[in-house]
Amino acid sequence: MSIPPPPGPPSPAPDPYRPPPQGPQPYGQQPYGQPYGQPYGPQYPGWGQGYSPYTRPVGVNGLAVASLVLGVLCCFPAVGLVLGVIALVQIRKKGQSGKGLAIAGSILSSLGLALWVTVLATGGLSQAWEGFKKGATEGAAFSVVKGQCFDAPGENLDGLTYDVDAVPCAGEHDGEVFGEFEMTGSAFPGDGAVSDAADERCYPLQDSYVLDTWSLPQDVDVYYFGPTRQSWRLGDREVSCIFGNTDASATLTGSLRADESTLDADQVALLKSLNALDTVLWQEPEDYPEDDLPGYRDWSQDVHDSLDEQIGTLEGHSWSARADKPVAALLKDMETARGEWEKAVAAADDKDVDTFYTHYDKGYAFVDGPSTVTARKALGLATDPPSYDEDSGSGGGGSDSGELDV
Question: How far apart are CA 42 and CA 17, in angstroms?
């Protein structure tokens, strides 16, 4: 039986840093001091997830940026405020940056929202919108006002005009605005419809701007500024009625205005009565009495009724000493004319054309007659009766005159 050797001190562990013994090693053995199956040298633990920096950058919250932009622009303040609140919640949950942006956007949006509420409450929104439309249409349309005198850049008032220069009415000028009105409708009606509307509505406005129609020069005609297809899309609906000279190379001098703002009470009373009667006289039928006697009968009755009304109006006015006698003489002629028109109606009822003509001529005799001129002179009004020649430009008779602004 063999006896194991007595225990001795444990063999020291092989030193992994000691160089291996020189010389050949037994076949199949690893170099000295290396565990079987492991590479030479100590093993060090690696990173569990590969290389990574010590800190990772944190992203800026996009809603915070959007809130700040909307707050600065003040275009959608309510949206900016909502985005700012949502951004603060997301930043707290996700640890994102941009808290300052979200707070600033929320504050600016709140101020903008308060401003919008104030504007809506005070009606300032409509004023702002009108200002916006005016700025948007600058260069595409322009506006003139009643009583304004101006110079046009072109040689005359016909055709297209893109702008005018306002000038004092006391000096020379190309045009004077005497009235304005608004057209309606969503779609542009066409240049012809604008022209027809101007012809229909400008001439009555002329009589209210120049009550003393005799004072209107013979070389003055009616023109207009109106919307075009382009300016209509921008909300332009205004038609401005304008006095201009029939001679393209001539101008106007001084204001033509002669209304209640420039005349005294006696002048206004006389002119309103005479103009009301003239309005009825101008409605005379187009055919001759022998071709339309019933029409002339009805019109003669209207003239009679108008004379009756205006006689009562003039008699009820308190005239100054300078006008008392001249107006009394005029009233006497008006009463005589009223009787002639009454007889003309009776002749038309009897179908007596010749007798109708007789009273028709006598009824017209007082119109613009001596008593009318005397009364006008006493009141300081124009005393030269206008010419009613159809070929003249009396008081703006050019119905095809016109001008469209852009």
Answer: 9
Contact yes or no for 275/211 (Cβ under 8 A): yes
Q: Cα-Cα-Cα-Cα dihedral of 259, 265, 266, 271, to 10°?
A: 30
pLDDT digits (tens, 9 = 90+) for 351-368: 999 999 999 999 998 888
**Positive or negative CA dihedral for 63, 69, 71, 74?**
negative
Closest CA to 111 of 84, 63, 149, 72: 72
Residues written for the chain: 406
The DSSP bridge partners found for residue 222 are 243
**Pair type for strands 403-405 and 220-226:** parallel
18-27, 80-89, 112-121, 279-288, range with greatest mean pLDDT: 279-288
Q: Where are the beta strands (DSSP E) in 186-267?
A: 220-226, 238-245, 252-253
Each as own residue / partner, the long-range contacts of residues 200-204 (CB below 8 Å, 24 or more positions apart, any chain) are 201/239, 201/241, 202/239, 202/241, 202/396, 203/396
Q: How far apart are CA 116 and CA 214, in angstroms?
A: 55
> What are 204-214's pLDDT values in tens digits?
899 899 999 99
CB 271 within 8 A of CB 381: yes
**What is residue 400's DSSP assignment?**
T
